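hey can u check if this looks right to u? its 486 residues, i copy pasted from the old doc so theres a chance i mangled smth
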Amino acid sequence: MRCLVTGATGYIGGRLAPRLLEAGHEVRCLARSAGRLRDVPWAGRTEIVEADLSRPETLPAAFEGVDVAYFLMHSLGRPDFERLDREAAENFAAAARAAGVRRIIYLGGPEPPAHERPSAHLRSRAEVARILLDSGVPTVVLRAPVIIGSGSASFEMLRYLTERLPVMVTPRWVKNRIQPIAVRDVLRYLIGAAGLPPEVSRGFDIGGADVLTYTQMMQGYARVAGLPRRVIVPLRPLSPWLSAHWVGLITPVPNSIARPLVASLIHEAVAHENDIAELLPGPPPLGFDEAVRLALGKIRDADVETRWSTASGLNPSAEPLPSDPDWSGGSVYVDERSRPVHASAGDLWRVIEGVGGENGWYSFPLAWSVRGWLDRLAGGVGLRRGRRDAQRLRVGEALDWWRVEEIEPGTLLRLRAEMRVPGRAWLEMRAEPDGNGGSVYRQRAVFLPRGLGGHLYWASVLPFHGVVFNGMARNITRTAEASGGG
């Protein structure tokens, strides 16, 4: 079948597309920017169509000739995510119906009991499910609880909370029951649903083998990870709002995403039926311990396919940096530095491509750490998003508080800032051969201020640039020389 995958730059879509290819299907990916999928290893085997679910006029070409369409996008992290997802679902449904698509498949969230007021996150997921089920196209909605897999937002929350806090004062919801599911089981259901007969058009609960409380999940994670048993003290006054801010400080997941996820945990998330097993027979779903063991193995082996942060940035409308920033007609602040390097351009490039994450930023670690904490306190992403892979980067990936905007392998790495700043900022690093066996390192920071606050911000950080940016250039070149034997 020809399958259309939306959300292919995200956590689930980025794993589903290659598995659909392995299953023998043709895959077309819908993306706002084809460049976001340029560097994924399976890009050459798929058709990538540039379209935007918020712009209906761009959709007909993407849906033409499609048999199965996957709705895997969401706008979580943006203040108006409910409206954005509603409009995207309506446009998706209309385009699928007009194109004669034979099936829609949607990965949604669990349905809370009828007597409970749902969180905004789950309310939005249920609204999208209704829109797609009412589309006139046979639709399968898979209602998944917490997904356990390397790089998922839910797993990162669990992992960081458990690893960093041997003693925790927690909110009441840690006693709610959850039926976590391994990401590989989610993918198996998503692929299998493509072959269901047309008369099947409904929602299905999916879950793993175990029903646990969040407390039991944290203790289970500690056991599998070889950590001592955690001391967990539930405390009634801790609200979901306060819990989300705590999660935002301790884990890599920023407040804008942690808040709706934590608010959803006030509801129990347990499968009330298992009808999917009759329609899609196969091995039983994994238990929690095995799912955690597999996820930790992927992290240990640096084999994480996708991460929650690979989805579009918190400001997906941000424009890329033009080649000549003078286009703005206003103030553009630039800090440029260059240094000769007694090592090849290849040795220098390996250091450039390895920046961030565990390797750090090669200059004044305390200053970077403090800036990261200030960003977290302001509700930003901070530094803890890290890297997906210790050596290799792809366009569109998150790298600490940056987004990889452009890579010219061996030559250029351009990063766009996603920290909270009054303007837009980029950092460029280049490796150029000098013609004599050595190389030249070029570094450029560009800031386009927004309003008076932007100008004041640049003036306030200017005194630190000599220390931070000069130290960064010096230490990157020294590291390249040391690794290259220079």
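The mean pLDDT is 86.
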